[in-house]
Amino acid sequence: MPDLTGKVAIVTGCASGIGAATVRRLVADGAQVLGTDIDAQGGAALCQEIGTRFAQQDVSDEQRWDEVVAEAVEAFGRLDILVNNAGKVSGRSIGDVDMAAWSQVIGVNLTGTMMGCRAAIRAMTKNPGGASGAIVNIASTTAITPLPTDVGYSASKAGVRALTKSVATWCAQQGNAIRCNTVIPGATDTGILAEAEKATPGLKQVVAATSPLKRLADPAETAAAIAFLASDECPYMTGADMLVDGGMMSLHPGF
């Protein structure tokens, strides 16, 4: 288990799913965590249960990023970890997407992630002891094999992969110890999937079948990968994609 004792983390989209599991895991590993979510009720309840801090945040709001990072630094004295987990789907194909739906999903998934990286790096460069930290951006298997039914989500998550690599290499060229990696979850049992199941009964079974393991991932399994990347266990790992997909991307679709 990674030792995150003394580390300070921000986790976005903490109210449910992978975000909630990540807050639980990082706290269990010793980190001090500020969880954020646009869902104030759900996020606050989760953080209160765990005994950590919460701040309401719309990750597409540039000013709010500066405020949230400042709150973490003021409360804990530094920032070591950022998990850009907050995300949004549009459910719109290229045939029916409008600019409002496109702009909203790009604003949250891609622009929000970029602004998080920027704000975190500014804080991490001022850490006592020198510039250091770990940023973990959450993408999706749709970044590799896009969904025809959601052009905005697919494009934004592909953008997150490229963004991560750009951030990672820039930080490396600056000579600091700030790393940036991507986690790519596969079919995961989250609230988004549960809501979709209501509209499409049997969807979970169909989605689970896309993995050779023939099951959905528990969010805690993805959180474990995030905790590893956030820790000091992998100091030479930056700009990488870590698949947590149950083998989905390894299987030919014909089989």
From TrEMBL:
Known Pfam families for this protein? adh_short_C2
Q: Which UniProt keywords apply?
A: Oxidoreductase
Q: Which InterPro entries match?
A: NAD(P)-bd_dom_sf, Sc_DH/Rdtase_CS, SDR_fam
- Which domain of life does the protein's organism represent? Bacteria
Q: Which PANTHER family match?
A: DEHYDROGENASES, SHORT CHAIN, OXIDOREDUCTASE UCPA
Recorded family membership: Belongs to the short-chain dehydrogenases/reductases (SDR) family.
Tell me the protein's name.
SDR family oxidoreductase
